[in-house]
Fold this sequence. Notes:
The protein has 218 residues and is of the alpha+beta class. The protein has helices spanning 43-56, 58-64, 66-83, 146-151, 158-174, and strands at residues 2-8, 15-18, 23-26, 31-33, 39-42, 108-118, 125-126, 137-139, 180-186, 193-201, 209-216. 28% of the residues lie in helices and 28% in strands. The chain has a five-stranded antiparallel β-sheet with strand order 4-3-6-1-8, with helices on one face. Strands 5-2-7 form a three-stranded antiparallel β-sheet. A hairpin with a 6-residue loop joins strand 9 (180-186) and strand 10.
Amino acid sequence: MYTIKILNRGDLDRQLIRSEACSINIPEFQLVLPPSRGQLTTVEGLLRDIVADLSVQQPLRRIQDESAYTKIQEIIDGLKEIIADHEDEVEEEGKDKPGRKELLKEDPVPRVITVTLDDPSGNSFLEFVGSMSDPKWNMRTYERSLEQSRQLGLAPPAEAEEEKDTNEADQQLEGPNEEVFEFPGVCSRCGQPLITRMKKVSIPYFKVRIEGILDLHS
């Protein structure tokens, strides 16, 4: 789990790698992005993607659910303020407005936010500056839950576990088969008499098989 505090404009240039298993949380906007496509981008690129994705359905939301439209528009406007997106503003003729090029990396952002990448696969990354002691940056490891392991394909699904438990219960009801079968014979190499001993062996997910042991008698 990676966490970064966005305090100034330079923090928007930090690169991040998002895997398909990574969810993103921005608590200041109560915004959680579920696992989606993987991407290599920057914090600013991520925020711009969020603005673009949320804006697509806004005209429809305004008609169908004005409450949802208002809440989402607040998030869009807040993110646009952070990334200094003035594309929607119409500049007056003869007047120069300060553009993004005039903004410095040291300039503080209008609103401090926290971006957290939570990836149980461990394949995501968020750039630090200088070293891992970067005060704005934090990384925390944790042990995956069983459900997370199943989602990543690292553990069998619940149905398989139930089937396995059922098979094991059936085997316990039958009891272990310790009977050993003995078959006298003659060794094909030396011609000496021998006894072949066999025992039934149960292997999970495989059919019952017979294992044999040759007991040579000279």
